[in-house]
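=== RUN LOG ===
request id: a7f3
mode: sequence -> structure
chains: 1
length: 201
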Amino acid sequence: MFYRPEDGHGLPHNPFNAIITPRPIGWISTRAADGTNNLAPYSFFNGAAYFPPQVMFSTTGSKPDQDNTKDTVANIEATGVFCVNIVEYAMRDAMNATSQTLPREVDEFAHAGLTPVECETIACARIAGAPAALECKLTQIVTLPGESNRVVFGEVTGIHMRDECLKDGIFDVTTYQPLARLGYRDYSVVRDLFTLARPDD
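=== RESULT ===
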């Protein structure tokens, strides 16, 4: 099958997200200018650079109570900081609860039954007990073609790792089993690993 996105795919559901899989989930916490905490998952998320460490995530929608964007981006624009919390399998239901579209004055930590704790290098909350969290300072927001499509880039200024996830000096993802986003309403979980050495190692 071949199709041009501008012409449509003719399928019951858009296959685009199902093709680009698996995707890590950036569970982005921010704080509004009035002090309200916000938390939302984004599966268009990844690392962007090693030195200095940088991450990116993109948002592709808007809310009626924000100006052509979502609470997450509006908060980052106002404060210049955000935190990426890593999603483990055990937190899948809480993560899903924070994907609900809620009024901007609602604290998603409370909505999902999660405990916020203060970050070390930025004025923002992170999720207590998350396997890892990346404290980030905004570097730039890029507007993409299309309605409400924006990419947020940030430099990582602090990294939290849950102690039991470190095994012999290695951050072992099998200790918490990261959640990955697939297409449609599907997810996957990482439980099995294998190693490949690069030819030039």
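=== NOTES ===
The longest helix spans residues 71-79.
The two ends are 39 Å apart (CA to CA).
=== END ===
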